[in-house]
Amino acid sequence: MVRKIVWLLAVSALLLAGCSGGSGGQGFSKRTAAGKEQVLRYPIVTSPSTLDPHAVEDGDTIDLLQQVFESLTVWGEDNQVKPGLAESWTIENNGSTYVFKLRANAKFHNGRSVTAEDVKWSLERACNPALASPVAGTYLSDIVGVADRLAGKSDTISGVVVRDPATVAISLLRPIPFFPAKLTYLTAAVLPKESVPANTVMKSTTDMVGTGPYKAKSYSTDQLFVLEANPDYYLGAPKIARIERPIIKDAATRLLKYKNGELDLVQLERGDVSGLQSDAKFKDQLQFFDRAAIWYMGMAGNAYPPFKNRDVRRAFAMAVDREQIVKETLGGINQLANGILPPAVTGARAQAAVLPFDPTAAKALLAKAGYPDPAKIPPIEFNYRDSRPDVRLVAENLAAQLQKNLGMKTNLRSMEWGAYLQKKDRGELQLYHMRWGADYLDPENFLTLLLTTNGPENKMGYSNPEVDKLCAEADVMPLGPERDAKYARAEDLILQDAPWMPIYFQRDAELIAPRVKGMRHSLFGHLPHTTVTLE
Fold first, then answer.
1. How far is residue 194's CA from residue 253's CA, in Å, rounded to a whole number?
2. How far is residue 265 from each of residues 254, 314, 386, 484, 493, measured CA to CA in Å?
3. What is the Rg, in whole angstroms, of the alpha carbon atoms belonging to the chain?
4. What spatial distance separates the first Cα and last Cα of the chain, rounded to whole Å?
C-alpha cells in the first residue's frame, strides 16, 4: 500500500509540473512536451496537392494520404505486393481476370464493414469524368470498361463485377503480370459512398473517410494536418495516438525545428548532410534510403517546337555534365543515372545507351538543326518546383551549363508544387527538372507509361513507333530475359532520342529522432506507421 501511495504521489507531482509550464521562453514547455509523447511529428515540404486519394499524383501528398486510405493491395517492406483490404486473390481466364476476396474485419472510419460493392463504387468514382482525376486513366485503364467510364459513355465499369458481398472480380483488356501492383496506387482506394462526395474531389477532413490506420482529424490550410489513430484498424490499432504534419516550406526552418526537438523526422537537402555527418549530436540520427526513383531533365516538343527536332534534344542532353552535378552539386550521395530504370526495377542495367557529355558535338547538332546561332533559337522557359533547395541547385546548374556549353539562355522559373503539377498535366512544361518515382518495380511503369506515344503520363508529345512496338510486346510477356531484352532495346532508343536526360537515381537523407522505433521502409518510401512506437 505504501508503495502504491508513493507512486500515486509521484504521478500527481509530474502532472502538476506539466500543468505549470509557461509558454514563454525557448523550446517546448513541460506541458507541451508531455503532450507530444505519443505524437509523431514530421513536416510536409509543401501544402497537400489534394485531400482526395482518387486524384493524388505526387509523393509528398501520397505519404500523407496513405495513412488514411487503402486499396485492395499494399506494399511490404520487401518491396513485394501484399494483401491490403483484400486478404487474397486468384487469377482466372489466362491472366485476364483477378478475383479478390475481402477481409472480413475491414471497416471504414464510419464503422461500417467494407463490401465488394464499395470496391466497385470506388473504382467507378475514381473514373467519373466529373471528378477529372489526373491519374485514373494511368492506373486503371487496363480494366474493361474504364475507357467508357472516363469518356462519360457509361455510369459503370463493366469489367468490375460483384460476385458476393466479399468477392469482386476485375477483368482486364489484356493479361498483365503487374496488375496487383497497380492497385497499390491510391486511385484504387476503397471509400464508402455514403460519406464521400461522388462527383467532386474531397475538400475537407470530414470528407476523408477511409479504412487506414489513421483518421483525418483536422487540416489548417498551409499550416498543419493532424491524424488520429484508428482503434478499429483491421491489423490492430496503431501504437501511437496521433501524427502531426506541419507544412514547412523552408528547408532551413525544417532542420532548425528538428534540432530544437520540435520534429521527429526531417528529409534533408544535400548541403546539410556533410555538416551533420561530423556533428557529434546528430550524426547517429542520420539515415539514408535508396528509392526507386529517377530525377531527369525533360524536353517537351509539344510545348516548345524546337524540341520536336531530335538533334535539338540531343544537343541539350550532350551539353550537360551529369557527373559533375551528381558529384559536386549533390555531394556524391546519389547514384549517377546511366539509364532510365532505377537499379531495383526488373531489367535495369548498369549502363544503357545514355548520351555522353560532349559540348563540341552538342554545338554541331544544334547547328545541324538550323540554329548555328543560339541567340536565334526561340526563348525557352525552364521550370522546377519550389521549396526544395536541391532541385533549385540542380536546375540552376543545368541552366548554367546550357548557357556555357551551347550559348543557350533559359528563363529559369520556380513554381509552387500544385501549380507545377497542373502545368505538367496540361502538357505546358517546355524544359523542366523533375522526378518520377516507381509505383511498381516493372519497366512498364517507366517506359510504357511515360515514354510511349499514347502513354498516360507522356505529357511531352514524344513519339517513336519502334519504342511503342517493343513496349506493347513486352508489356504482356511473362517475366524473363526475352521481355527484359525488348524493354532494354526500347530504353536505348529513348535515350538516343533524348526526350529525357537522366541525371541521378534518388537516395534520401533523413534525420530520425532516437525515440522513433519500428518505422517501416520500402523502395517507395516510408510505409504507413502501423508499427511505430515513441520512446
1. 41
2. 9, 40, 21, 38, 41
3. 25
4. 29
- CB neighbours of 376 closer than 8 A, spacing ≥ 6? none
Cα(222)–Cα(245) distance, rounded to whole angstroms? 11
pLDDT for 375 equals 84
Helices (H) then strands (E): counts for the chain: 17, 21
67 exposed, middle or buried (CB, 10 Å; 0-12, 13-18, 19+)? buried
CB 512 within 8 A of CB 527: no
What span, in angstroms and rounded, lies between the C-alpha atoms of 98 and 89? 7
Which residues lie closer than 8 Å to 501 by C-beta, 6 or more apart? 296, 297, 299, 316, 317, 320, 322, 355
Q: Judge whether 414 and 152 are in contact, CB under 8 Å.
A: no
Instruction: Please name which of 162, 185, 418 lies closest in space to residue 170, comparing C-alpha atoms.
Output: 162
Residues 6+ apart with CB under 8 A from 326: 332, 334, 335, 336, 503, 504
Q: Give which of 169, 168, 183, 185 is closest to 115, Cα–Cα.
A: 168
What are the residues whose beta carbons fall under 8 Å from the beta carbon of 301, sequence distance 6 or more?
307, 308, 309, 313, 460, 461, 462, 499
For residue 171, list its beta bridge partners: 97
Give the residues across from 86 on adjacent strands: 102
- What are the start-end ranges of the H helices in 194-334? 251-259, 270-277, 310-318, 322-324
> Residue 30: what pLDDT?
39
346, 432 contact by CB (below 8 A) = no
Q: What is the pTM of this model?
A: 0.88
Task: Tell me whether residue 236 is exposed, middle or buried, using C-beta atoms within 10 angstroms of its C-beta: 0 to 12, 13 to 18, 19 or more.
Answer: exposed
Positions of the chain with pLDDT under 70: 1-36
C-alpha cell at 354: 545514355
pLDDT of residue 36: 61
